[in-house]
Write a structure and sequence with these properties.
Elements (H helix, E strand, L loop, with lengths): L19 E2 L7 E2 L6 E3 L8 H6 L2 E6 L2 E6 L3 H19 L4 H15 L5 H14 L3 H13 L3 H11 L10 E2 L5 E5 L3 E5 L8 H10 L3 E5 L7 H12 L1 H4 L2 E4 L6 H10 L2 E5 L2 H10 L6 E4 L3 E6 L9 H13 L9 E7 L6 H18 L7 H20 L4 E5 L7 E5 L13 E7 L2 H8 L6 E7 L5 H10 L4 E4 L23 E5 L1 H6 L5 H4 L13
Helix pairs in contact: 2-10, 3-6, 3-8, 4-8, 12-13
Length: about 525
């Protein structure tokens, strides 16, 4: 049972009901309790009276009833005006290291298994998303740990040589001084495919001293609200700079109001979502987008040694299976170098065994009929080919249903995009040059490559992969878990949000001529003797 959510900051009380009642003597009659309704919005800028006047609706997501306000252009404009006031009062002049301290303390709260909002998340997110409870628990813990205090310091230092540029003008290499300003207010369109991902958006906004109007995803609108509530517990003023609601994507009046009030817009989503937002943001307003990306893995022959290949298969199975391959960091395929103690086809069989073991502990979420049909089509296509080319094509599938699929293909015409939901292809290659050639057609959407090879070979591999369009290289087994401060889509997560203001060195020198000591008439200058 989830902890009590009554009196959560930023929303009305969640609705519960009395379970049993008695009517005089006789046995107690136990009536079925109506479901608890959880608030899926965070609006601390509104008074209790304001909240009470909102028209709300309840939607069932998974098997959880979530209440949200009916979002109108008027509500958005009102909230944005108050967010701008809160940014001025609580954020604009706050030292960045103080913000880091507060956010680190929030993450410390989430590290406690008994923490109120963590228990709510671990109870409800598996029901909302369909992901296995253990996957959600471990995934949230690992994701949130990247924002611990020490890692936030590295995060900020990764984008700014001197993080104090976020607080004031600091000396620059050109001989002048520079300061970094974040937007006063951003509208941030969150993704819902991976639980916990909006934390990154919220933290990035606060670190550059920007208030956030967050649009939560329809598939998982709850977690950003829970995280914002934890910020409110640690620092109510900082939480005043966050507002989170859900509205239907493409709502022109609502989004026009949001975008008109915002100094910048960020959007995380598919190609269509990104294009839709870009088309409606006013000219001159920056749009920072994180759209569709493709990731793969490359295994060197060293990782196929007799005492290594099973462990390599286990690590890669986790990369594929985590959150059912829904994230941009999830691999669509793996290229396996020939010449190892185990050949690529035997590795594919080992990978299939590990995919099965992972499924036993962390079952895949239920699929729609369309998603299942997509996997069946891919399986059928390759099974038919395996009849005519049993050496070059093999299909390994889950014993029941479409829980996982491993496809071995020796000579692919091109890199095929996976239908996701634990479907991965295995392709043998002679070396890293073959991999780069396979990736060339999709270089514009490449993101992560997980590698397993001898350390001496990494510099060569990294140079070729980086030149081929890849922007993140990590070890196999770590693909879903980017390091703190990584350059998301090849750019700084914080530096992508700021604008620079420079005071030029020559200007400061030229202004010396206006020093009052030189412009005040001689007879009006203070007598030095008066200073004694």
């Amino acid at each position: 049972m989830s902890p009590d959510l009554h009196d959560a900051p930023g929303g009305g009380p969640d609705v519960a009901a009395e379970v049993g009642a008695t009517d005089g003597p006789g046995p107690v009659r136990v009536s079925a309790a109506p479901p608890v309704v959880h608030d899926a919005f965070f609006l601390p800028q509104l008074s209790a009276a304001d909240l009470g006047s909102l028209q709300c609706r309840t939607l069932r997501v998974g098997e959880v009833d979530l209440r949200s306000p009916v979002v109108t252009a008027e509500l958005v404009s009102r909230v944005c005006a108050r967010l701008l006031d809160a940014q001025r009062d609580f954020l604009a002049e706050r030292p960045v290291m103080e913000i880091v301290q507060v956010l680190g303390a929030v993450i410390t709260r989430w590290a406690d298994p008994a923490y109120r909002w963590r228990r709510v998340a671990e109870d409800l997110l598996p029901v909302i998303t369909g992901y296995a409870p253990e996957m959600v628990r471990r995934g949230l813990k690992e994701h949130l740990s990247t924002f611990r205090h020490d890692r936030l310091l590295r995060f900020v230092a990764g984008d700014f040589d001197n993080p104090l540029v976020l607080d004031g003008f600091q000396p620059n290499r050109a001989g002048g001084r520079s300061r970094a300003y974040g937007p006063r207010l951003m509208t941030q369109v969150f993704a819902g495919n991976v639980p916990g991902l909006p934390v990154w958006n919220l933290i990035c906004g606060l670190l550059v001293k920007s208030a956030t109007l967050g649009k939560s995803a329809s598939g998982e609108p709850l977690f950003p609200v829970l995280f914002a509530r934890s910020v409110a517990e640690e620092d109510p003023g900082l939480a005043q700079c966050l507002a989170i609601m859900h509205w239907a994507g493409g709502s022109e009046e609502v989004e026009s109001a949001a975008f008109a009030c915002s100094d910048a817009v960020t959007v995380t989503g598919g190609v269509g979502a990104v294009a839709s937002v870009r088309a409606r943001v006013p000219a001159g307003t920056p749009v920072v987008s994180y759209g569709h990306k493709v990731s793969v893995a490359v295994l060197g022959r060293e990782s196929l040694a007799l005492n290594r290949y099973a462990d390599t298969a286990r690590r890669f199975a986790r990369d594929v299976s985590q959150y059912d391959q829904q994230g941009c960091l999830s691999p669509h395929a793996v290229f396996v170098e020939r010449g190892g103690a185990v050949d690529p086809k035997t590795f594919a069989a080992a990978l299939a065994a590990e995919m099965g073991r992972y499924e036993q502990g962390k079952p895949r979420a239920a699929l729609t009929l369309t998603e299942s049909a997509a996997i069946d089509r891919v399986r059928s296509q390759y099974e038919f080919r395996s009849y005519t080319d049993p050496t070059g094509v093999a299909v390994f599938t889950s014993p029941v249903g479409t829980a996982w699929t491993v496809i071995y293909e020796e000579a692919p015409e091109r890199l095929e995009i996976s239908p996701l939901n634990r479907v991965v292809r295995v392709h043998p290659v002679q070396g890293i040059a073959d991999v780069v050639a396979h990736l060339a057609p999709v270089r514009r959407v490449l993101q992560t490559v997980g590698v397993a090879c001898a350390p001496q070979r990494l510099p060569e591999w990294a140079g070729l992969l980086g030149g081929g369009g890849v922007d993140r290289i990590c070890a196999v087994g770590q693909m879903p878990d980017p390091a703190p401060g990584w350059h998301h889509d090849g750019r700084g997560s914080l530096s992508a949000l700021i604008r620079w203001v420079d005071i030029e060195g020559p200007a400061e020198a030229a202004l010396e001529r206006y020093d009052p000591e030189w412009t005040t008439p001689a007879g009006h200058r203070p007598d030095p003797a008066d200073r004694l």
